[in-house]
Amino acid sequence: MITGRLIRRYKRFLADVRLSSGEVITAHCPNTGAMLGCREPGSRIWLSESDNPKRRYRHTWELVETAPGVLVGIHTGRTNRLAAEALSQGLLADVVKVRGLKREVSVADLGCRIDFLVETQDGPDCYMEIKNVTAAVEKDVALFPDAVSERAVRHLDSLVTLVDRGHRAALCFCVQRSDVRAVRPASEIHPEYATALARAAAAGVQIAGFRCRVSADRIEPVERVRVEVDVV
Description:
The chain has helices spanning about 80-90, 150-165, 190-205; strands at about 1-10, 15-20, 25-30, 45-50, 60-65, 70-75, 100-105, 110-120, 125-135, 140-145, 170-175, 180-185, 205-215, 220-225, 225.
């Protein structure tokens, strides 16, 4: 990858970057969220480069340094692959013991797609939704969501409905940063999400999280993190 300094992130999908060479380019931003704490002008960022001639923007923003030595993976397109790796490694074995994995499973009558249907070794298959976490931390605690997300609330409600129908369901937070030991709902940003998460946990949706080791060479799942859920 190549490095540069962020000038600005705008229109959700775009970022202007000054490369180490001094050249200013526009790169694709593969994260449509608010990117709280990850979009500060002047931040050092890392970009991948594509040789696909059909691409409008050759570079893709991958990482940002939010504090000295703290790299954060902002590419949400990598989230489910990291979760699949965590599942195959047994990092979530207390939630599900994996036999197989189906991706982007449609639940037609709910009008949604669930990230994974995990075929398990220890009982019924489990519907699993994955959420990417990058938000700035306070005392090693990351926040989700970093902006109001009605879509995230709907996903939780769908998982609750699946549990009510007798299925297993789980929500897993994928934290693409190394300076985190816990994740909590950002009730100060979206109180309805915090309530929905608590409601889902009470209904029997399993809640889990893991963090990744992030470097300029690779991103890899390494360990579980605590998820702090409000009590309803």
